[in-house]
Amino acid sequence: MAASARLQKELEIKSKQALATTKDPLERLRAACLARGAQGIKGLSILFKIMDDDKNRKLSLEEFQKGVEDGSIDYEEFLRKLRPPINNFRLDLIAKAFAKLDKNHDGQITVEDLRGVYIVKNHPKYVNGEWSEDQVLRHFLDCFDYGKHKDGIVTRDEFVDYYSGVSASIDNDMYFDLMMRNSWKI
C-alpha cells in the first residue's frame, strides 16, 4: 500500500474511533467528516457551496434546513472552526516557511518578498506571455488570502490559517513535515 493511501486509511480509522467515543457535537462533526477521508471537510465545503442558492457565501435558515441560532452561517468560518487544533510542531514548520518568504521581516508577505523565492519562469501563463512576473506572484499570494480580502498582502495569521486547513487533512506529523520542507526548502 502506498504511503499516502496508508496515511489516508489511518486517518479514517482514527476518525471513526473518535466518532464512536466523543460526545462534543463539533468534535463529532469533525470526526464524521474526517472519517470520510482527507477530503471529507473539503466535501462539506463543496456541499455548502451547492446549498448556497443566492451565492452570498452564507447559508440562510431556509438553505440550511437543520437551522442555526443566528439565521445564517459563513461556511468558511464554519470550516475553520471545524478544523482540529494544530499542534506546536506544525506551527513551528509554518513559522519557518513564513519567515523564509517574509524577506524584510515586517510580518507580511508581498510580491516584493516573493521575488527570488518563488520562481515564475515555468508557470504556464508566464511562459506563454499571458501574465507578467508580478501577475504570477500576485496569483500565488491570492491562494493564501481568503474570502473577499484578497489584497496582495499575506499576513502571518492568513498564512497560518491556510496551512491549518492543509493540516486538517494530514493526520501524520512526519508527512506534514515532509510536505512543508519539500515545498519551502526549510
UniProtKB/TrEMBL annotation:
InterPro entries in UniProt: Ca-bind, EF-hand-dom_pair, EF_Hand_1_Ca_BS, EF_hand_dom
Spans traversing the lipid bilayer: none
Ranges where the EF-hand domain occurs: 39-74, 89-124
Alphabetized Pfam families for the sequence: EF-hand_7
Gene Ontology terms for molecular function: calcium ion binding
Top-level taxon of origin: Eukaryota
UniProt name for this protein: EF-hand domain-containing protein
Annotated organism of origin: Adineta ricciae
